[in-house]
Amino acid sequence: MPSWRAPSGVAAPANDNMRAGHVTEGQRKDKVPAAETIIAGFLVVAILASIISRRINIPYTQFLVILGIALASLSASSLFGVDLIFNSLVGGGYFLALVLPPLLFEAMMNLRSSELKAVIRPGLALATVGVVIATLVGGLLLWSLAGLPVSTSFLFGALIAPTDTATVIEIFRRVRVPSRLAALLETEAGFNDATGIVVFSVVLESLTISQPSLVSAATEFVVLLGGGAVIGLAVAFGGELLSSFVDDPNSETIITIVTVYGSYSLAAYLGVSGLVAVVVAGLYFGNLTMHTTLSERSRATVRSFWETMTFIANSVAFLFIGLSTDVLQLATGAVAILVAYLAVSLARAAAVYPILAVFSGTSEKIPSSWRNVAMLGGMRGALSIVLLASIPASVAARDTIVTMVLGVAFISITLQGPMLFRYAANKFPTRRREHGGEIGDRLSATATEIDQLRKAREAGEIPEEEYRRRLDSKESQLARILEEIKGRNQTRLVLRSRWKGLRSLLKRRKKAQKKAAS
């Protein structure tokens, strides 16, 4: 078993079993499938889930969680090595290190510096002050509503306060919300892990230390955030220098892999935030390296690679959440889960609306619809589950905390995710992405948007650089729709061709048998 590699400031995981039906070490040796079986199983399920979710038009991540729960109820979790993943990857800190960096890097790589500048202040406020407010309000509400011990209530509040990166980014892939709004929530999700880890660590330490130092906590936060940013900047600059020596797409892609996991690993080794390092590296790469050292061919290859990595990371994260969820455990703790979800939702509202209202009074105008999207965008998932593994078995009501975290994550993804999707789609109807709606309507709408973009350029309403960037995005979207049309037709052609071939083969064999018999 690998040694514990927790995020900075987080204690080692408890040795007791988190999941119901957890197998022992001796049992696991007999029941855990081979690594290639686990990998193949995850990828096959991911591909099938992608195809089915597109056909029935529901969010991919939501379908994965539901599918994971269904497979777990059929005792298929052993096929995917869920206990091995939890103990060796989640408990060892590797799950966070492997899954979240691709999601963050790909999102930040596509975030323009002009969009970031417009939302950096409210985004960072949500990622810092917002997490603290959510922790305090959530802890107080849970203590008063559920009657849990004060320490347990605030520990849960700190654990569940950081929003989940993967969920928000996946939703925004399906609904094209305004770029500034997407940048706002992606900035919050990218930076709030440092705050969440520090707040969680302070609350966890307070259970054993009578007077935890707020000064040391504040210092730790500055070191985590600032150190991660410096490491990310340094590694990204090194990656840019390396890119200047090569000109083939494969080498460029390998350099980005080194940049992502190198920045995370170096930051974690130095005791600062690896996820913040990846965020900064992604911003640097997307806004500088992509335009200074990469050719057009290399840019296309790198983008395609990280889109694939994001798809795999999303699939692993959400399918694992589903496979890890015990339906019986959720049903038994349904009351506690509903109370916890209510407390978490009210805490999110207490953080989002006042903070964004303050910035709406400045030059950074934030419409009410954006605030509602930010409220619904506060979903929970992978990070909370990873932090959950570090709670000692001696903590009061630990089993209750486990049930509430898994339950809140389940409701957040399966209920709140679709609510965000529908709300955003209704508020920004012309911005629906290519995954939903009739193909003909989407094709016509995309062509119209391209025509409107050209007219805006001719009228001088947008600068040339912005026009080129948005035109490339629209043309890529149009190409994907045409590929989807072609793909649907190809499916019919493949089936028809193989059926004809099979019939022809059977006829020839039948004739050959008759000839041989005569």
Q: Can you put this structure into words, describing what you see?
A:
By secondary structure, this protein is mostly helical. It has two domains: 32-431, Na+/H+ antiporter like fold, CATH 1.20.1530.20; 439-517. 78% of the residues lie in helices and 0% in strands. It is built from 21 helices and no strands. Helix 5 (94-109) packs parallel to helix 13 and helix 12 runs antiparallel to helix 13. The chain is globular and about 95 Å long. The protein starts with 24 loop residues before the first helix and ends with a helix. Mean pLDDT is 77; it is low at 1-30 and 431-437.
Sheet of most strands: none
Shape descriptor reads globular
Number of helical segments with 4 or more residues = 21
Structural class, judged by helices and strands?
mainly alpha
| CATH top level class name of the largest domain | Mainly Alpha
Elements, N to C (H/E): HHHHHHHHHHHHHHHHHHHHH
Helix-residue proportion? over 70%
Number of strands: 0
The structural domain count equals: 2
Poorly predicted tracts of residues: 1-30, 431-437
Radius of gyration: 25 Å
Q: What is the CA–CA distance across the termini?
A: 68 Å
Tell me the CATH architecture of the largest domain: Up-down Bundle
Key attributes of the depicted protein:
518 residues; mainly alpha; Na+/H+ antiporter like fold; 21 helices; 78% helix; globular
Ordered list of secondary-structure elements with their pairings:
Layout: H1 25-31, H2 35-56, H3 60-73, H4 82-90, H5 94-109, H6 113-127, H7 129-146, H8 150-160, H9 165-174, H10 179-206, H11 214-243, H12 249-269, H13 274-292, H14 296-324, H15 327-332, H16 334-360, H17 368-376, H18 382-388, H19 398-427, H20 439-458, H21 464-517
